[in-house]
């Protein structure tokens, strides 16, 4: 009996031991096969340390691959407190080298962390300071390479590009909008240390960083330079509250240039106030547009057949009364009888009130909606505003009248450029955009492409042709004469809008603007420029904005290699205008005969003889009056 019980106990003990052994064996198999990788990583983390290597952000390029934003390599300071034996001495040396507080550095070197970054004092060190720290061979002190954003054109295109923070994160503009593409993957140098932080003599592991994607933009930096040069000139001459400009390809929606004043240098964004950094005025600013808005009213009136620009007439007495409010024309006594084309050329407010009433509020406001006013254009930049329109049920006669000539409504510059682009491109409203491609820099493969996006049709092709003709007439016969470029068909419209504050119009405080198209017969560029409250100037956009617009347009002609156009409308010359004449062909004529034909020009005879062998400029070219014609003479 006793023996039997004893044997049973032995069997039970054996079973228990066997089960324990089996459990241990299963656990070993589990650890060695299933959990090995996870446990290995956990153990590795206990005695491995990593020195970070910051990845480079992707480049930002203009449409011709010129670099607008890139990364440069800088040096940053990192300490491993457990490896520093003499913390006070180390803190003293570092604080002297960096010229910062000893106590601040002491806090870093005594901190209970495995790795401590000296931030911000030790970021982006110069080579001189880095070499000085390195010369001390301090234990536990490491200098690591770090990527820093750099903008080679400084202030140019700053609001569009945006800027990045000290940790290479996008904070505004394209840097923020496309941050997930621009941001790369950081690398590291992995080394091993014991529990006290002492470095072990094991091989280091170097993990490469991976650069971010490159952005290729629709921007042309040469056009951008021209625009920003003229904005700088405007600031010097007029000390405005603000100034801005946009150039867009009306056939695609591609933004060729966008700039505003005040501006900032994204390399030193810390030196600027938030309102300067974060207000991209061409898409953010809203204001009453004034007479540039008359392009919209005219397009609607022509499309609805309520006026014929060249046949229908209007009598301007100098003012019109609407709901007991007198709306005046800028010309005292008015313009008298005009065609509606002359109403457009002369920017005559009473004539546009008539257009508005012929359309009616439902029709006019339906076109404002069609052209995209009162909502975002959808441009791929953050911070876009929507503007303000009267609710249709609140629109009475006076609101209808003022809206027709660009007052009482609030719009953004980008809305105006998009709407006018649709008017001159045949009636297609495209979404404006700045990004053209996203490119993998390692393979040069395009991973994303922006293409033109048609939102809707706004007007017919016939109306578009009529408006292009009208805009060209403004430059040849109306308020846009100062933008006339001989040999190139320029169209445009001036705008002078009185500013509003707290519901009241301000005295002598205007936004002056100009909307230009080039060439007028086949537009490649729509250019808009606005000056907010220019000082010490005539209160007319036709004199204030036009010289700057003309210089930009001349640069665009050269940059885009736009050829001369035929059938340009002859300018209605003013007394101070430079007149141009076609140079006649005098080759083969006598000296006397040549003189009789070249009466508008100064003549320089070169060589002997009485017969003209060559002439410069060549025959049929346009040349300014009193310009010098050189004639090579012979027998």
Quick recap of the structure?
With 635 residues, this protein is of the alpha+beta class. The protein is built from 21 helices and 26 strands.
- Tell me, rounded to a whole number, the average pLDDT: 86
At the first level of CATH, what is the class of the largest domain?
Alpha Beta
- Please give the CATH architecture of the largest domain: 3-Layer(aba) Sandwich
Unreliable sequence segments: 42-47
Can you say what the CATH homologous superfamily of the largest domain is?
DD-peptidase/beta-lactamase superfamily
Q: CATH topology of the largest domain, what is it called?
A: Beta-lactamase
Key traits:
635 residues, alpha+beta, Penicillin-binding protein 2a (Domain 2), 4 domains, 26 strands, 33% helix
Written overview of the protein:
- There is one protein chain.
- Helices cover 33% and strands 24% of the residues.
- It is elongated and about 135 Å long.
- It is an alpha+beta fold and 635 residues long.
- Strands 2, 3, 4, 5, 8, 16 and 17 form a seven-stranded mixed beta sheet that branches.
- The protein folds into four domains: 2-34; 50-216, Penicillin-binding protein 2a (Domain 2) (Alpha-Beta Complex), CATH 3.90.1310; 221-264 and 278-559, Beta-lactamase (3-Layer(aba) Sandwich); 580-634, Trypsin Inhibitor V, Chain A.
- Helix 9 (221-238) packs antiparallel against helix 20 (546-559), helix 12 (294-303) crosses helix 15 (361-370) and helix 13 (340-346) crosses helix 18.
